[in-house]
């Protein structure tokens, strides 16, 4: 335990983290993990406060031009019934989010070029003119001009996970993408003033602690405002269908170390973690997370947006989801945030 204690102390007293320090923390055993999680929770409390922020996700299209090996939306998955929501259907889902008290809506899709920059800009404009909502986009890699158009239309945030910054592993997992191009997109988003989110999967085939350390260091260097960290979950209609899923303990340790390195970032308790294990949301909130992202995609298409199988939120009605969240937060003595949750806003202190 001395090595872990020394690594924690170094990080908590301001030492710049490096690969060796992070891999030491990621190697925490069962006896050491409570200390790691407690430290992460303390940093979370000081960095972003006690409050938990809710973001309503609307998954408006499951078409995708990419062929990533791990993703159920991949272009070559011919067994998946595809759908696209109309602009009015998207607005109706946002109406529901606003009526339920959400302060942020996340518009997410596969990489579907059917929706032009102008289409999405009009959607953002309608939402911002109708409601006092923060708008987050998550529609993949696009050009600088598209990102600029959406920012000028009023988009506040953008989520684009790097998945891994190991170039060899990235190329294997995403054969029709290039890591340098994805990272360029992230730098454009920062340049344009988006609150920028990235993130990685834990337990990918070929991944190791050094790989994970590289992801955390990249997100720290980029100064992301949000980091989505969840386990790899194999999908039965992908080339990685027989791969082992990511482990619970390593996912929670990665989340905790990310919190230690990103004290002011928003870290969600991901749906993937809840799918991996019952109580995953609670475990994440005890390990440094401060965001929950309920699914408000219309029920008639929700089961068709399957990046990974058996998503925990496929059939649950939003009202029940909110009831369960409120019950959990009461048990944890964590308040529900009332503000938009923009970067560097601290509530519940």
Automatic annotation (TrEMBL):
<dbReference type="GO" id="GO:0016740">
    <property type="term" value="F:transferase activity"/>
</dbReference>
<dbReference type="Pfam" id="PF04055">
    <property type="entry name" value="Radical_SAM"/>
</dbReference>
<dbReference type="GO" id="GO:0042364">
    <property type="term" value="P:water-soluble vitamin biosynthetic process"/>
</dbReference>
<dbReference type="InterPro" id="IPR024021">
    <property type="entry name" value="FeFe-hyd_HydE_rSAM"/>
</dbReference>
<feature type="binding site">
    <location>
        <position position="71"/>
    </location>
    <ligand>
        <name>[4Fe-4S] cluster</name>
    </ligand>
</feature>
<feature type="binding site">
    <location>
        <position position="138"/>
    </location>
    <ligand>
        <name>(3R)-3-methyl-D-ornithine</name>
    </ligand>
</feature>
<dbReference type="InterPro" id="IPR010722">
    <property type="entry name" value="BATS_dom"/>
</dbReference>
<feature type="domain" description="Radical SAM core">
    <location>
        <begin position="50"/>
        <end position="270"/>
    </location>
</feature>
<keyword id="KW-0949">S-adenosyl-L-methionine</keyword>
<feature type="binding site">
    <location>
        <position position="233"/>
    </location>
    <ligand>
        <name>S-adenosyl-L-methionine</name>
    </ligand>
</feature>
<keyword id="KW-0004">4Fe-4S</keyword>
<dbReference type="GO" id="GO:0044272">
    <property type="term" value="P:sulfur compound biosynthetic process"/>
</dbReference>
<dbReference type="GO" id="GO:0046872">
    <property type="term" value="F:metal ion binding"/>
</dbReference>
<keyword id="KW-0479">Metal-binding</keyword>
<dbReference type="GO" id="GO:0051539">
    <property type="term" value="F:4 iron, 4 sulfur cluster binding"/>
</dbReference>
<keyword id="KW-0408">Iron</keyword>
<feature type="binding site">
    <location>
        <position position="68"/>
    </location>
    <ligand>
        <name>[4Fe-4S] cluster</name>
    </ligand>
</feature>
<feature type="binding site">
    <location>
        <position position="163"/>
    </location>
    <ligand>
        <name>S-adenosyl-L-methionine</name>
    </ligand>
</feature>
<feature type="binding site">
    <location>
        <position position="182"/>
    </location>
    <ligand>
        <name>S-adenosyl-L-methionine</name>
    </ligand>
</feature>
<dbReference type="InterPro" id="IPR013785">
    <property type="entry name" value="Aldolase_TIM"/>
</dbReference>
<dbReference type="InterPro" id="IPR034422">
    <property type="entry name" value="HydE/PylB-like"/>
</dbReference>
<feature type="binding site">
    <location>
        <position position="64"/>
    </location>
    <ligand>
        <name>[4Fe-4S] cluster</name>
    </ligand>
</feature>
<dbReference type="InterPro" id="IPR007197">
    <property type="entry name" value="rSAM"/>
</dbReference>
<keyword id="KW-0411">Iron-sulfur</keyword>
<dbReference type="InterPro" id="IPR058240">
    <property type="entry name" value="rSAM_sf"/>
</dbReference>
<dbReference type="InterPro" id="IPR006638">
    <property type="entry name" value="Elp3/MiaA/NifB-like_rSAM"/>
</dbReference>
<protein>
    <submittedName>
        <fullName>Iron-only hydrogenase maturation protein HydE</fullName>
    </submittedName>
</protein>
């Amino acid at each position: 335990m001395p090595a872990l204690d020394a690594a924690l102390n170094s990080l908590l007293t301001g030492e710049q983290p490096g690969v060796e320090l992070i891999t030491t923390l990621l190697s925490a055993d069962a006896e050491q993990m409570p200390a790691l999680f407690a430290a992460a929770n303390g940093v979370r409390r000081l960095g972003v406060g006690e409050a938990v922020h809710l973001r309503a996700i609307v998954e408006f299209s499951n078409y995708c031009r990419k062929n990533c090996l791990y993703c159920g939306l991949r272009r070559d998955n011919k067994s998946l019934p595809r759908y696209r929501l109309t602009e009015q259907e998207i607005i109706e889902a946002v109406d529901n989010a606003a009526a339920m008290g959400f302060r942020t809506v996340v518009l997410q899709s596969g990489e579907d070029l059917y929706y032009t920059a102008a289409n999405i800009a009009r959607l953002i404009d309608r939402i911002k003119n109708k409601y006092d909502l923060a708008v987050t986009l998550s529609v993949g890699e696009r050009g600088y001009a598209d990102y600029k158009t959406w920012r000028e239309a009023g988009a506040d945030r953008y989520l684009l996970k790097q998945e891994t910054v190991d170039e060899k592993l990235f190329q294997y997992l995403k054969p029709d993408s290039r890591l340098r191009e994805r990272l360029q997109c992230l730098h454009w988003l920062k340049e344009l003033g988006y609150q920028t989110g990235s993130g990685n999967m834990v337990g990918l085939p070929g991944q190791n602690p050094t790989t994970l350390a590289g992801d955390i260091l990249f997100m720290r260097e980029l100064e992301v405002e949000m980091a989505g960290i969840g386990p790899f979950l194999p999908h039965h209609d992908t080339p990685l269908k027989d791969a082992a899923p990511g482990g619970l303990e390593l996912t929670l340790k990665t989340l905790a170390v990310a919190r230690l390195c990103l004290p002011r970032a928003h870290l969600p308790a991901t749906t993937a973690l809840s799918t991996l294990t019952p109580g995953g949301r609670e475990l994440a909130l005890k390990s440094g997370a401060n965001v929950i992202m309920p699914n408000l995609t219309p029920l008639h298409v929700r089961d068709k947006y399957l990046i990974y199988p058996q998503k925990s939120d496929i059939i649950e009605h939003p009202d029940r989801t909110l009831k369960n969240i409120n019950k959990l937060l009461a048990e944890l003595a964590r308040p529900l945030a009332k503000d938009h949750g923009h970067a560097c806003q601290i509530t519940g202190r």
